[in-house]
Fold each of these.
Amino acid sequence: MKQSFGVWNKLRTAMGVFTVVLLSLLVWALVNVVFTKPEFRGLIDLTRGARFTLSDATKALVREVREGPHVLEIHTFILQFPKGDPRARIQNQVVELTRDLLERLRYLGGQKIKVIHHDLYREIQSSRQARDELGIKRFNTLVLKLGARKRILGILTDLADIEFPTEKPLPGQPLVPVLRSFPGEAAVSSALGGLLHDRNLLACWLTGHEEGLPTDGSGVGYAELARQLTQNGFENRILDLDKEPRIPKNCRLLLVMQAKRPIFQRHVGKLLNFLRGGGRILMTEGYWLGTEQQSFSSLLGPLGLRLRSSLLCNGILDPSGGLPAYGTEECLNLQISSGLNGTHPATEGLRKRGESFVLRWGRAIEVLDPKENKLEPGLRVTRLLSTHPFAFEEEVPKGRPPDFRPASESELGVKTVGVSVALPGGGGKKGKKQEEGEREGRMVLLGGMAFQNGEQLLERNLNLALSLVRWLSHQRTLVRTGTLSLAKEQMDVSPQARSRAKWVLYLVPALFLFLALFVLFWRRRS
Amino acid sequence: MSSVPKIHHRLGILFKRELFGLLVSPITYLVFTLFFFFRAFEVQTLIESFAGGGSPSRFAYYFLASPSTQFAVVVIPPILTMRLLAEEKRSGSLELLMTAPVRDWEVVVAKWGATWLLFALLWVPSFLQILVLMRPGYLGASLPMGQLFAGYLGLFLVGSLLLAVGLFTSSLTENVLLASLTSLLAGLGLLVVPPMLAEKLGGSSFSQLSVDSSIGQTLLAQFQVVRHLGSWFFRGLIDTGQLVFYASTTALFLFLTVRSLESRKWR
């Protein structure tokens, strides 16, 4: 009887312990479920510059995506630079920061934000298919796709601020670029803001003066630029001002590309009013061999600009530092590199990255004195692109080809081939003061062919085109967020420092070995 | 009545006894020597790879996430905990200890606390190393203190969990070797199994986790200790959900250890 009571008691205790253990497991599971819920979960970001903390502006955009009907797809296409390439280290750093940024966006976006990193090396077929579907020709790009609309960003150009040293490196040493900052969040948020808010982003292409058109796929057409604009959220439309009473208000960007005939006076008024009302114009003009050069003075004069009539050439620079060469058609390729304005928002980034561009069949632009020419008050003209100091103008006699040589050395000099014009907003009325909320009118004039189809646009000038278009059109949707500064983070390890570090590293195990021997000896003695 | 010591006094005595036992063991120092020797070799290679320049944040990440760290996290807790209860059971000193005016949970907490402190002490020289390495004349860069704090916090948390697991396995058997092997397997299982399981289930992986993830996915992600360290703590990020996971799971295993000790009364 006594024994059976003991067994029963043991069984009861075991049952009690089992129940308590089960209950504790349940409590543990419940606590963990509760604290993994987003409402109870917090993120403490102790990284330098709090790089994982998204700004309120970005979070608000993510909320909009979550509330909207479409899923935001973010695609990345990264092609690794070879190991020895000095850009490879920076690329790794930027890619890591980009992935971290996208990871946070994906986490907050839930099912409404999908991030797809296309592995170009392992998933060859699927990544090629994705590139075809998204119309991506370049690598190291990030595509934001919301519904049918998309924006394309360059990972190394738009998401990173990379500075190339201006001084020549010592012989045998590579040119080492420095990653100054990572404005990735601002770039991605701005693009997302554009996708969400700029539903009618319209690029109007002026016609009626023998301009180059977006429908023209030939070497002198602009089908490629139009495609790039589409990829950046624009809808292209051809605009004939004889059929429209005015330039439509939703026309975010007006393109006047390589007009061969003078712009009619009746159209000039509409264009100027468009600018005064906050409109944005991108105009390119060049030199037409065998015809009279148009000055467009009725349009450009009030804006303080004059297009020269002579053909602009420049000497071909010798990389080894010798004298520039003249006399070949190559002189038509106007080299724009050090002549990029480093303080203007449209070209600042390009200058920092050490990018260079080519303009062909160009003409110089003169900036008129505002006092002598009675220009509108508040008008600001800024030189954006200039040639190197060995540029010259050549008068080409009719019926004879140019000889691409300067008449004398005194003709050589820096020539302006790109300017920006900012006109204070005034509701389209001359002299009216800009009120709060009114946009300033902006125009970029390039005195040469830059964005036509073909190799020139694709390989050399696309970044310039996109940078100008963004400055002209996207200002309102730019999201201002903090930029992660990285310049102070760089380490430099000299051979002497490495040698000293060795001592620090091997001293610790030596000390522990000594302690082990000491304890062993002490224990044996005691 | 006044001769019975108060709770904190009792805990203090037990804690000192355990810590002293660990500190006078030459094995402890030999393990530390081995660990820091491998670590020195690794960090030297790491410094060489940063010779062309690089950011201190990246350096700190690789400094924290070196293979020797994984070795220390997986292997050292079983070594420290294997003898704690199994050896005492085998030698009979546990019964002697239990006759003293102490509670089971006090014994468990004191033993766990002593091993945790020793585990934490293991990382102090490593922190001092990076502190010196970042000074001018060495790597000459400013320390990413926040990132280092988060990294070491992660190591302490994972360590506390694995030590609690080790203590629990040590309480289940009288065989020291079996206790250490079980603890090692449990630690390895915790590091390896959840990612494999997530891979198998597809879509439940840590990298797929978002605000819309299901409870199952989120809980599974909570077990991915390696990911917690690599993707969060070592990079300077602290997820409060993970803090709760480590604290609650450590407490759970300590509780189970107490229950296991108690079972000797009714088995």
Note: The CA atoms of residues 118 and 212 of chain A lie 36 Å apart.
Amino acid sequence: MAVKARGILPQRQKGFATLRFVVGGQLTVAQMRKLADLARREGKEMVLTTMRKTVELPWIRLEKVPEVLKECAGVGLRPGSTGMRTVKAVLPCAATYRCAFEATDVMGLYDKVATRYFGRDAPAKFKISISGCPNYCMHPYLNDIGIVGRVHPRINLDKCIACGQCARLCRGEAITQKTEAYPASPLPTKAWEEAMELNRAPVFDATTPLDAIILDEKGLPHIDYDKCIDCGLCVRNCPTDAIEVERSGFTVMVGGRGGRKARFGNEIVRIASEEELFTILDRTLEYHEKFAQGRERLPDAIERLGLEHYKEHVLEGLELDGKQCSTMKARSG
Amino acid sequence: MTKIRWTSGILAQKQREYTTMRVPLSGRITSEQMDKMADIAERDGKGIVLLTIRKSIEIPWIKYDQSLKVQRELQQAKLEIGSCGRSVRTVVRCASTGRCPFEVIDVEKKYQEITDRYYGKSTPTKFKTSVSGCANACANPYINDFGIVGKAHPRIDFSKCDKCYKCVEACKGGVFATEDGIPEVEGAITQEAITIGEDGMPRIDYDKCIDCGWCISNCPPGALGAERVGYGIYVGGRGGRYPKFAHEVARFVSEVELFRILEGTIEYFRKFAEGRERLVLVLERLGIEHYKEHVLKED
């Protein structure tokens, strides 16, 4: 493996290198202190963070590199994600158990995916991202493989108290209205009052309204599944648990890329189980290995051979549950 | 009490009593700031910080009643929380910072200028900008409301050319050893805009050339130079739920033009957005020609 693949990046300036560490979007206090300390001693008092949520330590003298890497290893900082022909740092969203939109255990999945695939050889760089919900914060469509957590809701009208909370959430209202009216809003009531007092923005942004939940004349909710994007916000915020999980899993998007020749990937599965997800990942990497010409990236290979060719090889024999979409859902309304 | 703007930077968590503090840094943090954040995360949070895709750092798990105290402490270390709400969000810069072999413009300077002038200014809804130092477009200009890409237009001085053809290799994405064989830099993508002419001299096919400047960096005798350096501008992209690639509204403009267009775009956005509509939707509704007429046309 080339030196580059081990987390050492060349700089324009001779004799210096930048070290890249794969941290999965999280730094511990010990890691931060170590990085700050090393930047002070060996670098230029500067630490960089990147678009793929790795951290970089620039301006390290080449002869100091082994020493610095050794110190970093002591606090669990793994160098890597620099080769042109490997699976790059897996990109998890920032949900980490605290985001109100998170529909799946992002960090749990991150650990599994990163352990299994990160650093593997591939014909060209191969990027994987994980978003916790269909807000697509981690741009699944700009990665070779984009994984998105999804929850398909079902309403149990026996439990429903017709509070209308779900419909309001689905309209994107929950965070723009006063919380008192919403018993299970993600916004803390006391915090809201303080925020109003301080003329401070109440917390997180409203997402684009979907309006997929319609209330009938009795105030009972009904889901318009054509509009629903399976984000699961209604499921998690129903005060009586009347909205249940019909099924949950992962959307897989394939063949996107950012940068110079940016291209959107295609959604190939709407909701796959975890087992199916890993089958698709395994087979996609095999597919890339088998069909890429030279240093061709997966999106280029798919463009050359056609999406159908890819699907034939990768989805064969998988009995995928639920509806499949050929492309991303177009914006409605 | 001082009024805090919409850009406040205090985010709600699923857990009602906790909040996450967002510190926009655009990917660069000093040792001192890092230590400060570590202290806060250890004392008031859960001993971790999160990195975001727009290169900010977030400190999660801060108790709500501690948030103002934490904010003041961060301010002492010259860390302002923010980049939320209906405003010009943190300007994402690529990771060049003067050390990337590909960088053709001064990303740092552009970032500072744009941030000083526009960051936090109110807009109908969020407005995202990014600055990439070269045509590799690492900061994803295509999915920002306003994406800036540095460009260097190459020209060959044939009197200096010694026919080593490194430029031809560079444009094919060849591998270059910068020093003693390590570490090596690989070209990004095969562009193949430079070929060898009948006279044995390299020829640039300007239709294929994307002004990335990689050949200029890889010409040992310095025969390839930048005829001019400028910016490509992409407007009206978005990521998230309904992604859309931006329109390329200018292929190659000067610095003065860049700021004129940025100013004009923000004005245009304020004037024509209905409600909380993103720029991408304004352009969808009114058409890119409408935008060009209002923003690009010289008075």
Note: The CA atoms of residues 40 and 177 of chain A lie 47 Å apart.
